[in-house]
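Chapter review: from sequence to fold.
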Amino acid sequence: MKSKSKDLKKNASAKKASLGRVLKKNEKIKETVKEAASELTSVNEVLKQEKIPVQVIKQALTKNEDVEQKVAKAADDLKLVNAKLAKELADRIVIESELADTKTDLAEVRDDLSKAQVEKEDAQQIALQDAHTGLPNRVSFEQGLEHGLSQAKRHGWGLAVLFIDIDKFKRINDSYGHDVGDQVLLMVANRLKSFVRDEDMVSRWGGDEFVCLLFEVKQEADVTRLAEKMINQIAEDCEFNGTILSIKASIGIAIYPTDGETADILFKNADTAMYKAKGSKKRVVLFREAGVRKAD
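The token string follows.
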């Protein structure tokens, strides 16, 4: 498309130059006609005089013939110029029309490319988003954790992984139906999201499991306090289709670098701490408090 537009513009430029030459030729013909008219006037002035020598008359008549020939040639040249001018103008109209069509085509191509880019971005967004809760999904979390670890290592920051599980979620589905279960998941997602900063991340890992990534952690006590607030907020009564439920959750925590220096180890240790929390009254357990050996 760009090549065609470039060729059309090149042709238009060439036609413009050709048209200029034709117009210049037309101006030369006009000058010739003016000269012929002037010469014819001078001949007529001579012939009007009385007692003109024969030799002068002969010269005047010869000049008159020359002028007539010049005028006749100018007339023929003018016909050719007019024909050429008509062709040049017709060609120019065609080229301008093609250029206009090309501009329209280019605009349509740009629109198509813009739409394709939007669709691509939408597809990428969908690929990284949990369809039900709107939270980042597992793939997005894994990318965020890898990026967060690289930043933490570079700047010497702490980083915390929280593994969150809804207690007895299967019983909720069995007792009240999957519609209520879906509403519970959405409620938990929104309550968890309300506790974290913009730079942090809450994701749905799958089923009734969520994960949270906290950046630039300075004190582990700050992390445990935040986790306890999450547990309390989730547990506040909520009504679903006329049924009032109080949801319980358990959270396991692993902190970089004490509880692991890689994404896999941190995640496994947070998962281990979460299962320890499910069997205790604390509901929030740090990996180092779980009483198990650190994952290799």
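Two observations follow directly from the output. The longest strand covers residues 158-166. Residues 2-127 form a domain with the Four Helix Bundle (Hemerythrin (Met), subunit A) fold (CATH 1.20.120).
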